[in-house]
From TrEMBL:
The keyword Metal-binding does not apply. It is found in: Cell membrane. InterPro entries: GPCR_Rhodpsn, GPCR_Rhodpsn_7TM, Olfact_rcpt, Olfact_rcpt_6C-like. Residues 41-291 form the G-protein coupled receptors family 1 profile domain. It is a multi-pass membrane protein. One of its GO terms (cellular component) is plasma membrane. Keywords: Cell membrane, G-protein coupled receptor, Glycoprotein, Membrane, Olfaction, Receptor, Sensory transduction, Transducer, Transmembrane, Transmembrane helix. Pfam families: 7tm_4. The lineage of its organism: Eukaryota, Metazoa, Chordata, Craniata, Vertebrata. GO terms for molecular function: G protein-coupled receptor activity; olfactory receptor activity. It comes from Python bivittatus (Burmese python). This is Olfactory receptor. The chain crosses the membrane at residues 26-50, 62-82, 102-120, 140-164, 200-226, 238-260. Belongs to the G-protein coupled receptor 1 family.
């Protein structure tokens, strides 16, 4: 087929989630509930960090960044997915699809950097407590957070620009529930090998380096915990680390399965769509609960707000 005379597609059709006949309403309700839990849990963390000056510490600065990322990550595709269910119209405009693709990966890559910073913060706090305050100053934390956001911004921009310039002549049906790189490249014409290699390189460099750094940090943390004299402190620290590592395993495992593949032309996305839920919605919902459920400072901040009496208005 002559791709030079191809008319660029003005919109795509997103297949959506696999569903059984008559289960549409239940799926819609589940997606809406998970999205609401994600916004509520992550939004609560951001509000607590802003309102309570006791939470203005490096750990909570990074955690509030992670919460904002999770909210943005899910908002890039869930509202559109819910609208599609209500309207039975699965179309998305070309530039909307490219914007969704970009912001989805922008938030996703930035999340890996922030998780790495959280593991670094925990390593310094537990393994080097005497030097922690001098190393992790407010200025250093702010610079690290800004660097993470800029890293996410620039790591995907070239790949998305190249994808946007590809011809889409043979099909405009995306076999996914959002505009993902793999399904979009599968219907694209022209040479996609450079884009695939670039995406594979970004995945390996960003995800693998982030995972390696995170695992090494927690390895040192566990070694330090084992040397603690108190069994109670050991159990509490191990419990916290185990919950953090559960989130790490879910997030990194699903990303490896979905994106760490050399080619997409012969890929089947039915299984990938199911696995994608782990890093697109399950992890964002779990993050605020996992990182704060055993955190007494956050619990106290929440109870402070809940117990706070509303202002008394003068009677007229």
């Amino acid at each position: 087929m002559n791709l030079t005379n191809c008319t660029r597609a003005t919109e795509f059709i997103v297949v959506g989630l696999p569903s059984a006949q008559g289960m549409e309403n239940m799926i819609f309700a589940c997606v809406l509930l998970l999205y609401f839990l994600c916004l509520m849990g992550n939004g609560l963390i951001i509000v607590m960090v802003i309102m309570d000056h006791h939470l203005r510490k490096p750990m909570y600065l990074f955690l509030s960044n992670l919460s904002f990322i999770d909210m943005g990550h899910t908002t890039t595709f869930i509202p559109k997915l819910l609208i599609n269910y209500l309207s039975a119209n699965n179309s998305i405009c070309f530039y909307c699809c490219m914007a969704q693709l970009y912001f989805y990966f922008f938030f996703g890559v930035t999340e890996f950097f922030i998780i790495t910073l959280i593991s670094l913060d925990r390593y310094l706090a537990i393994c080097h407590p005497l030097r922690y305050a001098t190393i992790m100053t407010s200025a250093v934390c702010l610079k690290l957070a800004i660097a993470a956001w800029f890293g996410g911004f620039f790591s995907i921009v070239c790949q998305v620009a190249m994808i946007a310039n590809l011809p889409y002549c043979t099909s405009n049906v995306i076999n996914h529930f959002y505009c993902d790189v793999g399904p979009v490249l599968k219907i694209a014409g022209g040479a996609i090998h450079v884009i695939e290699a670039l995406g594979f390189l970004v995945t390996v460099v960003v995800v693998m380096s982030s995972l390696l750094f995170t695992l090494i940090s927690y390895l040192f943390i566990i070694c330090t915990i084992l040397r603690m004299p108190s069994n109670t402190r050991q159990q509490r620290a191990f419990s916290t680390c185990a919950s953090h590592l559960i989130v790490v395993c879910i997030l990194y495992g699903s990303v490896f399965f979905v994106y760490l593949r050399p080619t997409v032309k012969n890929s089947s996305f039915n299984v990938i769509k199911s696995v994608s839920w782990l890093n697109t919605i399950v992890a964002p919902v779990l993050n605020p609960f996992i990182y704060t459920i055993r955190n007494n400072e956050v619990k106290e901040a929440v109870w402070k707000v809940l117990r706070k009496k509303p202002p008394a208005f003068p009677k007229i």
